[in-house]
Each structure stands twice: as structure tokens, then as C-alpha cells.
TrEMBL record:
Belongs to the universal ribosomal protein uS17 family. It holds the Pfam family Ribosomal_S17. One of its GO terms (molecular function) is structural constituent of ribosome. Part of the 30S ribosomal subunit. This is Small ribosomal subunit protein uS17. Keywords: Ribonucleoprotein, Ribosomal protein, RNA-binding, rRNA-binding. It comes from the Bacteria. InterPro entries: NA-bd_OB-fold, Ribosomal_uS17, Ribosomal_uS17_bact/chlr. Coiled coil: none annotated. PANTHER family: 40S RIBOSOMAL PROTEIN S11 FAMILY MEMBER, SMALL RIBOSOMAL SUBUNIT PROTEIN US17M. It comes from Paracoccus solventivorans. GO terms for cellular component: cytosolic small ribosomal subunit.
């Protein structure tokens, strides 16, 4: 089974080697037939403490690192967009 990759915004970088990422998903409500936004926070491993609050990052599933960390930061989207431009 492939590993899930999610995109979100860093909301906290206070812990060592950990960032909290807010991921937003949009879906059509089955009864109301309107687009609904739902958010969820994930704690992701950031080995080099590179990412700061406000950065847009991609995270990928991994084996459990601690009690709450099951994700690893994959890339920094804003940095990759700057390289392409």
C-alpha cells in the first residue's frame, strides 16, 4: 500500500525535531450538497529543525517515531516553487 502524502501549513515548531502541521481537506457534504472544509493537525518529524511557523510543507507517512509522531516532513513547497521560478 502506498504511503499517504499530505500538504499543510506549519502551526508550531516549539518542540525539538517536531513540527505541527495543519492539513485542510474539502469535501462535498452528502446531505447538504455543499463544499465543507475540515482541518486536522498532524505532528511530523523535522530532523534539522528547518521549518518555521507559516511554512507550507508536505508530509509523508512513516513508522511511529514517538507516541504522537507518525509523519515525516517531505519537502518545503515554498522553496521548491522559488527554485522553479
Amino acid at each position: 500500500m502506498p504511503k499517504r502524502i499530505l500538504q499543510g501549513k506549519v502551526t508550531s515548531d516549539k518542540n525539538a525535531q517536531t513540527v505541527t502541521v495543519l492539513v485542510e481537506r474539502r469535501f462535498k457534504h452528502p446531505l447538504l450538497n455543499k463544499i465543507v472544509r475540515s482541518t486536522k493537525k498532524y505532528r511530523a518529524h523535522d530532523a534539522e529543525n528547518h521549518f518555521k511557523v507559516g511554512d507550507t510543507v508536505r508530509i509523508i507517512e512513516c513508522a511511529p517515531i514517538s507516541k504522537t509522531k507518525r509523519w515525516t516532513v517531505l519537502t518545503d513547497d515554498s522553496a521548491s516553487q522559488a527554485v522553479e521560478a
